[in-house]
Amino acid sequence: MSGVAAASERTAPPPGARAPLSPVTAGQARVRLPHTPDHPSCFACGPHVPSGLGLRVTETDAQGITAQVTLADVHQGAPGIAHGGIVAAVLDEATSLAVWHVLNRPNVTGRLEIQFLAPVPLGRPLYLRAKCAAVHGRKAYATAELHTDGPDGTVAATAAAVYIAVQQDHFDHPAKHHAGTAPPRVPTPAGAAPRC
After folding, report:
1. Residue 113 — very low, low, confident or very high, per pLDDT cuts 50/70/90?
2. Are 115 and 6 in contact (CB under 8 A)?
């Protein structure tokens, strides 16, 4: 990575964090991922999702993944430029896949910080490099860069993320894990304007 950092103290590994060690290199079988091919309807990497992102991993190594995506008009914010929320989704997916690949464990996003550095164009290949940087307890720390104009081209956005380890069944039975977590809805009194 070029060293452009989006990390704040909340996404930087704390003192005592260690370098990630993949259990796969020690012979452990790979866990099922909530990504293709196990979940082909994933918005970010599912191959047959209308208006999905279509992110695909092109290479993996002991530190993370390399991926590619081409965003379409449906992902537009300003004319010809990807919406910032879409760019965040791309970087979230890339960092998530890096953590899953390196640590071989189920995780969910705990914090994601994005630094937007240049416009992200539509209709052209975008290149991502994401790494699992450190582990501290249940937390894994990851970074990513999104490049335009080739794998070593302009860095248009960076991400720093924290992932939290969860049990595999978190993805098999999401209603069980999320029941009762939403705050109670407070009805708007009759005649009052709705609050945002």
Report:
1. very high
2. yes
Q: Contact at 8 Å (CB) between 142 and 11?
A: no
Classify residue 152 by its DSSP letter: T
DSSP code string of 25-89: GGTPPPPPPSSTTT-TT-TTT-TT-TT----EEEEE-SSEEEEEEE--GGGBSSTTBB-HHHHHH
Three-state SS at 148: coil
Query: In which element (H, E) is residue 91 found?
Result: helix 84-103
Local confidence band at 190 (pLDDT 50, 70, 90 cut-offs):
low
Most confident of 6-15, 104-113, 139-148, 185-194: 139-148
Q: Are 33 and 185 in contact (CB under 8 A)?
A: no
Task: Give, in order, the Cα–Cα distances in Å from 42 to each of 1, 10, 67.
Answer: 27, 28, 16
Count Cβ atoms below 10 Å from residue 53 Cβ, excluding itself.
Answer: 21
Nearest to 4 by CA among 113, 84, 164: 113
State the DSSP H helix or E strand holding residue 131, giving kind and residue range, or none if neither: strand 125-136
**What pTM did the predictor assign?**
0.76
